[in-house]
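Notes for week 9. Today we move from apo structures to complexes. The key idea is that a small molecule is not decoration. When we ask for a structure prediction with magnesium ion present, the ligand SMILES becomes part of the input, just like the chain. The input block below holds both the sequence and the ligand string. Read it once before you look at the output, and try to guess where the molecule might sit.
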Amino acid sequence: MIRLDNVSFYYEKQPVLNHVSLFVKKGQKLGVLGESGCGKSTLLKLMAGLCRPSSGTVTVDGESEPARICQKVSVVMQTPMLLPMTIRENITMGHEYTEEWIRHVCEEANLTKWIDTLPKGIDTYLGDRSDELSGGQAQRVAIARAMCKDAGILLLDEPTSALDPENAAAVLEALERYAKNRTLVHVTHRPEHLKAYDIVMNMDEL
Ligand SMILES: Nc1ncnc2c1ncn2[C@@H]1O[C@H](COP(=O)(O)OP(=O)(O)OP(=O)(O)O)[C@@H](O)[C@H]1O
Ligand SMILES: [Mg+2]
């Protein structure tokens, strides 16, 4: 399902990943640990088709072209990227979903309570106010977006790091429920979050 063959990655001339090979089968859960700066987010970006390996191959669900890989995965990056659009559009990204599904993912991402306090609710425009969102609100919109896409592969980069402990626990539980019959890669600094995982990779040991 996800396969890295001898993958190296350089930013400019700085090597970040050196000859990494790994294989995650369909439905498996891979946890990724490692010190800050060791290349965890870079690894996830390669798996998400957000960058191209300097050498070697990344294959995700049979695709090796980054633009095609993007279509196969749902991703929550460490720093959520919101666009100057409404909350709804930030979640659906221009695709059609039923109102029921959108409401469900908002509920799962613990967004409903906040959205209900806004006069325009989910149709609130975020353009001029994206700086007014808390880091946690922005991250929960990014989580709802990933869930809404309903891809078979879920890639998470510290998805709850901006949330308070109560929200973090609830959202993590929802993400794990969502990932139950999907392939999951979860980057975290917290090994206790990876107890039931099939593979745990510590990038410091590569
Ligand atoms: N856009 C970029 N341009 C140049 N160097 C970069 C870029 N992004 C990351 N790096 C460098 O690549 C290395 C790996 O970064 P990466 O973000 O993958 O680390 P990380 O393991 O996710 O760290 P953290 O735990 O702090 O999130 C770091 O040394 C970082 O400075
Ligand atoms: Mg990172």
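Residues 2-205 form a domain with the Rossmann fold fold (CATH 3.40.50.300).
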